[in-house]
Amino acid sequence: MNLPRLPEPLALLPYVGKWCLIAGLVAALSGSASAFFLFALDQATRYREAHAWLIWLLPLAGFAVGWVYLKLGRSVEAGNNLLIDEIHDPKRVVPLRLAPLVLAGTVVSHLFGASVGREGTAVQMGGALADQLTHVFGLRHEDRRILLMAGISAGFASVFGTPLAGAIFGLEVLAIGRLRYDAIFPCMVAAIAADQVGMAWGVRHTHYALQAAPPLTLLNVAAVLAAGALFGLAGMAFARSTHAASAFMKRRIAYAPLRPLLGGCVIALAVWLLGTRYIGLGIPVIVEAFARPLAPWDWAGKFVFTVASLGSGFKGGEVTPLFYLGATLGNALAPLLHLPFALLAGLGFVAVFAGAANTPLASTIMAIELFGPQIGPFAALACVVAYLFSGHSGIYHAQRVGPGKHHRQRPPPPGPPPGAG
């Protein structure tokens, strides 16, 4: 006897209940881990700023981080790319040790003065902690893919305070030109709840002052399109340079701990010559970029310091340095394009990231969450143009290539760029 089928809305209730529970647990784990990380990062930054001599210990700190990863972290060294690979081709649960290793490695890198970010750490912790629920709930491969995506969304949302952008980032980052809608509900729940968990722990995110946007005139739109193209080229150059620096170091130095040791020596000497403006997260400089004219070479300084840090093996993310690079580049372009400093700084903040990560939708939503709805039309144009002009390069070499970025463009054959291994 065939039982009558339930109406589709009722049939969805078990699915909704299941993913509310799982995504809620992911949010609690990831939001708490991000809160602890942000507090530790803040303390490390304050201590380094009060004790400038710590920069001379950066080579030894780099050697220590490299040695620990060599002995304990070979299976998780790929970081974000490991999570993306596991979503595309599930094989085994991500080892839990990824979370404490990347947490400690990033805090040490910041304590002693490397120019690295924080997104990679939060995303890796979120993904690793989420994946531990695979065995708890006996999830199949397809559900495990969604679980990892929710962990990525939760980590991104809780570290930047941008829940909607975090949710879309987890769906968009996997493949260029494709968006995974099958995970949209778990990613939304995990991202929004993880942000709330972080705030419940006392996390407060940086406020960026952006006044009313200029009118959407033809001249202003043309200026934003030109800026978007430059932001995309900057994102492409950053991604390619980071991969090339990593490949060069791996070819020249076989013993992994020596790479950050040598890189730390170069960075310490550069800080002695140029000062501390281009190390750490650089949040104060980003805030400055919204308020007044800066030196037109600030973006290039951050570019070189970050490529040297990440390319030589220091741990951390790429995204906050990309925010710095974009905001200062936008600040430098503002007088040339006759647009307000705050507007161009905000557009550069998100658009360079959109180009480097191939995530124009998440970046546009991030702009609205951070700077307000008035920037929305300009941010959408800048992020999409940056996405187009960055080509198929990207900071995540495990990112798959779907359709071309436009119908006349064929995507390159799959495979990581040089040095991705």
UniProtKB/TrEMBL annotation:
Superkingdom, natural source: Bacteria
Compartment annotation: Membrane
Stretches with biased composition (Pro residues): 411-421
InterPro entries noted in UniProt: Cl-channel_core, ClC, ClC-type_chloride_channel
CDD domains for this protein: ClC_sycA_like (cd03682)
Gene Ontology molecular function: chloride transmembrane transporter activity
Keywords: Membrane, Transmembrane, Transmembrane helix
Membrane topology: Multi-pass membrane protein
Transmembrane segments: 16-41, 53-70, 146-171, 183-203, 215-239, 260-283, 303-324, 336-357, 377-398
Database matches in Pfam families: Voltage_CLC
GO cellular component: membrane
Annotated stretches, region: Disordered: 400-421
Protein name: H+/Cl-antiporter ClcA
